[in-house]
Every structure is written in C-alpha cells, then in structure tokens.
Amino acid sequence: MFKRILVANRAEIAIRIIRTCREMNIETIAVYSTADKDSLHVKLATDSVCIGPASSTESYLNMDAIITAAKVTKCDALHPGFGFLSENSEFARRCYKEGIVFIGPTPKAMDLLGNKLLARKMMQKAGVPVVPGSDGPVENLSMLEKIADRIGYPVLIKASAGGGGRGMRRVLKKEQLEAMYREAKAEARACFGNDEMYVEKLIMNPKHVEFQILADEFGNVLQLGERDCSIQRKNQKLIEESPCMALKDDLRKQMGKAAVAAAKAANYTNAGTVEFVLDAKGHFYFIEMNTRIQVEHGVTEAVTGLDLIKEQIRIAYHEPLKLKQKDVRLSGHAIECRINAEDPSKDFKANTGTVEFLNLPGGPGVRVDTHLYNGYATSPFYDSMLAKIIVHAPTRLDAIRRMRRALLEFTLEGIETNVDFDYLLMHHPSFIRGKYSVNFIEKHADEILKWDRAAGQKENDKK
Fold first, then answer.
1. Between 3.40.50.300, 3.30.1360.40, 3.30.70.270, 3.30.470.20, what CATH number should domain 207-462 receive?
2. Secondary structure element (H or E) that encloses residue 286, with its range
3. Model pTM?
4. Is 93 one of the annotated active-site residues of the chain?
5. Which of 73, 84, 89, 455 has CB 3.0 to 4.6 Å from 110, enough for a Cys bridge?
6. pLDDT in tens, 377-432
C-alpha cells in the first residue's frame, strides 16, 4: 500500500481524506496557502507544506508548487479531492510523469469526459440516452438559431469545457438567444480558456439524479445507487439525498445500467459520478460525468456502508474491487445539507468572519464533515461551504426529522449561514412529499424566508 499521500486540497475534503489515510496507516502531507496556515487540515496531517499566497491561482491551482511539495516530501501518491485541480488532466499527467500516482481516473478518461460535447457523442455511441441537441459545436449565432428552431424552445446553451454551472445559459424564447449566447461564450472563455459551445433542448423542471460509480483496472464497474441533487440554487447543489423518491425499481435499474455503460464507454477507473436529468414522464438523459469524488459522497457512504475514499486509494494501488454488483446493498435513507457562509435574507450573499462559538450536532445517525473550530477565521478567497451535515435513518421521514434535529443543534456564532433556511426547507410540504425539481429554490425561496422557526416547528408537529 502507499506509504505517503499528498492531499492537494483544503478544508473539509482534505480532512476527510486525511482521516481515511490514518485508518489505513498511510502518512499524509497537507498543502496550504498563507491564508490557510491555521486551517484544521494542516494540523491533522502528518506534515504540511506552504505552497503559496492566498490566491488559489498561486497556491491550490499552482501545479509546480504542489508537485514540488509531493516530490520533496517523497509522496508516492496524490489525492486531489474535489474542485481545484481534481479534474485537470494536465495535472494528472504531470503527476504520473514525476512518478506520483494520481488517485483518480486516467488523464485520457478525464479528457474524454471533461469535454461535454465529446462525452455526449460517446454516450450516444454507447446507447446512453442524451438530451436532443446539436451533433457538434455551435460555430456561430446563425448555426445556433437554426438548431434552436429545429429542437424547439426552451434551449440550454452549454460550454463544451464547462462545469459547476459555468458557461451555461437557459434561453426561454428566441429573442434572448443572441444575448445569452454571447454571455455564455464570454463566461466560458474566462473560466475555462475555451469558448466552444453546444446547445441542447432544455428539459423544464427536471430532477437532477446522479449515480455513484466505482471502477477498477480489471474491468469491474459498480453503481452504488443514486442521489437526488435537485435542491439547487444557480446550478449549485444545496441538499442531496439517497435514494431518490421519484425512481421506481424498474427505472432505477435502467438508470443504473446506463451509468455503468457510460463508465465502460470511457474505459473509466476509480470513483466517478454519472449525472442525469429526469423529466416528469420518467424519461432520463445523460448530462455529464464528474471525474472525481463528489461533495455529496457521504450520502452514498451512509446508505452503502462503504468508505469511498478508501476504495479510491485501493483502486489507485491497482487492487481489484472486493464487491460485485450483487453484493451492493442500500440501507435506509440519507440526507445531506450543505452549510454555507451566506445570508439567505440578502440573496444568499457570501460572507466571512471568525467562529466565536461552535456547537456541532451529534447523536444517532448524524455525521458532520467540517474544518471549523472555535476561533477559526474564514477566508474570502475560497468556497463558502463551511460544513456538511449528513443524516441516516431507516426511512425518509425519519431522516427528515433527524436532519431537523441536527440543524437545530448546529450553532455557529460570528458568521451568517444558511442553517435556518435549511431547517425551514425541511418543513416545506413539497420537500416532505419528495415532489420537487431543480426549480424548487427559485420557486419557494421567498416563501421560506417569510417563515420563522416557530412556524416550522408547528409544521413539524403535524408531520
């Protein structure tokens, strides 16, 4: 097994990786920016290396600094976590060139799946359903107009190299097309250095359902069930749960088989996530495959009992999967709430501050992944996520009640968060019934913000 792993990330995901490595008797090297010198992942690792100033481009996105840190500390592997360089095939290639194992898929698979247009073509060839749209890149506005007229409005303009909702615009009517096209291209160019675009039919008010994949180097591919990630704001996930209440057994099997086919088509190895949209009639379509561990991986860990980070490390060490598909058993129901440093009453404006007092929830079936501690000062340079609360219970209603209890216990003074908003959302009738889609926050945010905890508790007593 690996002796020492460099964790090329920060905050809670770095801590998550360090914890598994400790259980596997693997030493860890943390990297940190000057802004993160007091971060908890630095304190928990075996050793640490400062890789640059606060700016991500000069630290967590600095390939030279990270690879140098790995070589100087004699690491034999590197785990990229999520975000930053986790889906950068050039970084993975450089790691292998320097004799460092990249704990993730091959650079070739990352290239194939990182380009959304290439991935779309590959899925079509593999028989995986894709959303109707352009067969190749949209070269100009005139071409876009013709395709949009053919498939019909509304449409979704997407960047081939996009991700995280960047380089994407919804177009509800023809009059918006030119402006949205130019906006999407400009954002894609700024974010990815690539403004190649394509267009798809916009599936209105779908569910966002993703399947967790594990694949080894011996041709074994497992799907570990689905996660419903439809509670989103501006294409950023807020709440995830497993299983998805909209899936009956037959549809679940179909989507699971399609997810496995997608991974096999790309000759994929390690952990990955195949993402689909599901319309109101039960039709599902491939949208992308994320070539990394997901923020919401803990939801799948809760219902399967697996440690996905441990599985990633074993696969990267050339070990075969110990499980077969028939051995995968999903138990109970899990829900995750992302706790962000943002103020929902001010249009979810992000903020920073110092943790003056912190109390984390606990008790049966409650897990909290966080890098917070009393006295910790958050930074404006990085993502606003502060913690993830994951609950697991025998039934969905039990899980909702457990999450309400956990959110009530979560106490953080000194920083505005979305905890109260999440708590009230857990009382919304549509959420309780599982009758929600990706437009839920857009549709109900104002309504939820008008409630208060007393009203929520009153609703809780009824359910």
1. 3.30.470.20
2. strand 284-290
3. 0.92
4. no
5. 89
6. 999 999 999 999 999 999 999 999 999 999 999 999 999 999 999 999 999 999 99
